[in-house]
Design goal:
The chain is mainly α. The two termini are 26 Å apart.
Length: 89
């Protein structure tokens, strides 16, 4: 269930910080969030898919580490990203 090329490009265009940005923290968190939401839907249908559940937990941990890094660098960028993605309650 990887992201399609068009979906990746849309996420990059929405969350990039400059014209050639493809790997900033914002873009990485946005891609991980999209994959987490896709995988969550899959796991609601397939409750016994434990290997996908393990991958989901790894993605959530990676997203959490990236967000902690971003929060340490810039509180404003962190708050803007959280609001834009609608995560963290």
């Amino acid at each position: 269930m990887p992201l399609t090329t068009t979906k990746k490009q849309e996420l990059i265009n929405v969350h990039q910080t400059h014209a050639t940005d493809t790997g900033s923290v914002e873009v990485q968190v946005a891609m991980l969030s999209e994959r987490v939401s896709q995988l969550t839907g899959h796991l609601q249908q397939n409750k016994h898919d434990f290997s996908s559940r393990q991958g989901l937990l790894k993605m959530i941990g990676q997203r959490k580490r990236l967000l902690a890094y971003l929060k340490g660098i810039s509180q404003e960028r962190y708050a803007a990203l959280i609001a834009k993605l609608g995560i963290r309650g």
